[in-house]
Amino acid sequence: MGTEGADFRVIAGRYRLEARIGRGGMGVVWRASDQVLGRLVAVKELLPDDSFADDDARRRRDRTFREARAVAQLRHPHIIVVHDVVEQDDRPYLVMELVDGGSLADRIARQGPVDAAEAARIGIALLSALRTAHEAGVLHRDIKPANVLIESGTDRVVLTDFGIAQVAGATTLTETGSFVGSPEYTAPERMSGLRTGPESDLWSLGALLCTVLSGESPFRRDSLGGILHAVVADDIRPPAQAEPLLPVVRGLLDRDPDRRLGTADAERMLRTYLETGRTPLGPGGPGAAGGHGNGRVPRFGGSRTGRTGKAPAPYTPTQRDVPHSGPPTSAVSRPSRRPVLVAALLVAALAGAGVSAAALLLHGGGDGGGGRPGGTATSPATRTGTGTSAPPATGAPGTSPGATGPTTGGSRPAPSGYRTARETAGYSLAVPEDFTRSQEGERVFYLSPGGTFRLGIKVAGVQPGGPRLVMERSAAKGPANNPGYRDGRVTGTEHDGHPAALWEFTWDGFSAAEGPRHTFDLCWEESGRMYDLWVSAPVGDVSEAREYFDVAVDTFRAPRG
C-alpha cells in the first residue's frame, strides 16, 4: 500500500496512527500499531462532514458500528478480520487486520486485466466468503474491485469494506435521496428498490468478474442515467475475454434473482474450469445448459418427446398461464419482469438520481452508446384493458409492415410486456415490445436491443416428408451452419392439431464474444403452408428465451382462407 501522510495520534489509548494508506467510502484508512499487543493493524476513521445534520451524522456513526458488528460475526480466510471498534471525540474508529497489498482495482489499473484462471481463482475465493456471510445473515451490498484486497506475497483474496452491509433484521441506514452502493455493480432488483438479498451480491460478483477479465464493467456508461438503463434494460454483453467463464458470468448476471446462479453452483463451476479447462454450461454438469440458482435447470421440451409407434404428443408451452387453446375470455398471462423493473427504477431515479436520469430511461437513449441502435427514442406502449399494447409511434423500432396493436377476431391477446406484430404475409404473433424488425430474404427477424435474442419466422410451401423430415435435414446441416453445433435433437409433435416437429440444439455462436447459444425451432404445416419459427439466445438466458418462444408459438395466427 502507498503512504499518503502521517498523523501519529493515539486512539483509545492504544492505537497509534502512523500512515494514511487509503480512503474508503466513509473515511480514511490508516496503518497503525497496536501498542498493547505490539502488532500492526488497519484503522478506519469516519471523517466528520459539516454538511450533515446531527441526525445524519449519528446515522453515519451507527453505520460504522453496524459494519463492525456485521464483520465481527464472520470468520473466513477471505473476509477482513475486525479486531475492535472504538470511539474518540464522538468519532468512531474501526480496527481491522492489516493486509499488506493493494486493492483489486489498483492491480487492474497497474497490470491490466487478468486471465480466466486468475479470475476463476478470485471468483472462488469471493464466492466462498459470500457463502459464509450470507449464512450469517450478512449482505455486503457493495462488491466491486476497490473493495477486494490482494495480499502481497500470498495473493490471498480478502473481501473488505462492509460499510453498507445489511444484517438480516437490522434497519437500513441510507441517507434520504442518496444511492447506496456502486451503480455499475448494483443488481437491478436492488437498484429499483424491489428487493435485496444474497442474490444481489452475486450479481455484483458477475459484474466484477467481467471487470477483472476485461478492465471495465459491462455496465459502464458516460452518465448515471446511462448506467441505470444499462443495468435494468439494455442487453447484457459480457466481454469477449469472459468466454471461458461465460456460463458462470451469464448465470450471475441473470436479471431475475430467482433464476440467478447460486453461490455453491457458481463456485463448483469455477473449480471445474480450473481442474479441466472447461466450464460446465450449467450446475447440473458438463451437459447441462443454462442452469441457474439453487440447482434449478430450465426445462427443454419435457413432455414433448414422442414415442415410437404412437401418435406424437401435442406441443404445449412450458408457461402454463400463457393461453394455448382457443380464444380466452380474458388475458391471464405471466407478466414480464423487465417492464416492472424499468418502471420501478424510473420511480427510484426520480427520487434519487434526478429527472434527467428518469427521462433517459423513458426514451432509451443518451447513455453514451448503450441505447438503442441509432439512438431512436420511443415511448412506452399504452396498455389496454385486455393486456394488449397500443401501436407505437410511426417509425418506431419494431413497427412491422402491417398494423401493430390490439388483437381482434380469433387472435390471442399479447401478454404483458409484448405487442402483436402483423406481417404483410398475413400472419401475426406476439413479440416483446422492445424487439425491432428486420428482414433477410424470406426470413423475418425480431431482435432484442443489441441482437442478443433473435426471433425468426420463415414461410414456405409444403415440403415432401412434412415438418419432421424438413427439421431432420436441417439438423443434418447443423454442424456446417452453426459453429460448435451439439446436443441437437428433432422431435415429432403437433401444433394446434397440425403436423409439427421441434428441433433444439446448442452451438458456439458466430464469435467468441457472442458465446454459446441455444436454439428452439418449431416447424409445422397449416393451411397449405409450412411455417418455421425459432428463437436463439445465450445459454445463460434459456429460460427467458423459452418464454419468448412459447409466447410467439402460442399467439401465432396464420392468415385465414
Number of domains: 3
Mean pLDDT: 74
Largest sheet: 7 strands, antiparallel
Q: What is the CATH superfamily classification of the largest domain?
A: Transferase(Phosphotransferase) domain 1
Shape: elongated
Separation of termini?
77 Å
Uncertain runs = 171-178, 285-341, 346-410
CATH architecture of the largest domain, by name, is Orthogonal Bundle
The number of strands is 19
Strand order of the largest sheet: 13-14-15-19-18-17-16
| Main structural class | alpha+beta
CATH topology of the largest domain: Transferase(Phosphotransferase), domain 1
CATH class designation of the largest domain? Mainly Alpha
Query: What amount of the residues lies in strands?
Result: 15-25%
| Total DSSP helices | 13
**Proportion of helical residues:** 25-40%
Organism: Streptomyces albidocamelliae
EC number: 2.7.11.1
InterPro entries: Kinase-like_dom_sf, Prot_kinase_dom, Protein_kinase_ATP_BS, Ser/Thr_kinase_AS
Keywords: ATP-binding, Kinase, Membrane, Nucleotide-binding, Serine/threonine-protein kinase, Transferase, Transmembrane, Transmembrane helix
Describe the overall structure.
It is a single chain. Helix 6 crosses helix 10. This protein has 3 domains: 88 residues, Phosphorylase Kinase, domain 1; 190 residues, Transferase(Phosphotransferase) domain 1 (Transferase(Phosphotransferase), domain 1), CATH 1.10.510; 184 residues, Protein Transport Mog1p, Chain A (3-Layer(aba) Sandwich), CATH 3.40.1000.10. The strands form 5 sheets. It has a 7-stranded antiparallel beta sheet, sandwiched between helices. Strands 1-2-3-4-6-5 form a 6-stranded antiparallel beta sheet, covered by helices on one side. By secondary structure, the chain is of the alpha+beta class. The radius of gyration is 27 Å and the shape is elongated. It is 27% helix and 21% strand. The longest helix is centred in the first third of the chain and has 20 residues. It has 13 helices and 19 strands. About 23% of the residues have low confidence. Keywords: ATP-binding, Kinase, Membrane, Nucleotide-binding, Serine/threonine-protein kinase, Transferase, Transmembrane, Transmembrane helix. It comes from Streptomyces albidocamelliae. This is non-specific serine/threonine protein kinase.
